[in-house]
Write the structure tokens for this entry.
Amino acid sequence: MQVKKTWKRVDGVLLLDKPIGLTSNDALQKARRLFSAAKGGHTGTLDPLATGLLPLCFGEATKFSADLLDADKTYEAVLKLGVTTDSGDAEGKVVASAAVDVTENDIFRVLPMFTGDLQQIPPMHSALKRDGRPLYELARQGIEVEREARAVTIHRLECLAFAGDSLSLRVACSKGTYIRVLAADIGRELGCGAHLTALRRTVVGDLDLANAVTLAELEALDEAGRLAHLQPVDALVHTLPIVTVEGEAESRFRHGNPVDLPAGLSGKIRVYAGDQLIGVGEPGSDGRLWPKRLVQLVV
């Protein structure tokens, strides 16, 4: 007889080291079951081919998951030179091959061309939609449609290793950057073509892979051990400025009403009662601090 799963309220942020082969949602659901968390979400997808940092949110922390969607990210990528695929990665079909006659000097000449503000054309093998259909569905049918170039920024592009037809890079970039497209563009500039064979995300915003845990490690722990890996609800917004309220101001804010805004503060602001986060607010046109997201108290 199958025992029905009992879900419970779990609040916090889990820094997961996602394994290869799992979608972000698959990884979320596996972690959610390990915590028996009634509510969970992730902060932006990581392709099945990719591994590394996937911040997961449980309970009240899901209210702040969107705050990481616009965050900068850092990846370590491995490119295979001399082979071009239709998807830009190792899962695609080979469409061209060429001899690799590339030196380190060539690498250091080309990489600066892809640093700074760039226009990048999204790949057909992506989840972007055209007339309600993901582009990857059209690509599987051999259909290619025109895509509009998007502005992205490569903050840093470093060569980690280069030998033969293998090139390893560290890429610090803005949201919306396709590393597969970057790999193909670099290969094109080198004159031999290239595709992405491995990708590992190491940083999201100011969250670091060094503090992440794997699913296998979580499975080996008891409940207390797993909960010890949860970061607090405010982990995704801890870089925002703080306002502390008490008494009538606390009650007003908790009930969706504005409070006085200290001079010199602007943008999103964390609001605390004592050491407990009660929400995030933003200045209104009246110069007061208005609630935007409120945290539900544990009863």
In short: The chain is about 20% helix and 35% strand. The CA atoms of residues 121 and 149 lie 4 Å apart. The longest helix spans residues 24-35.
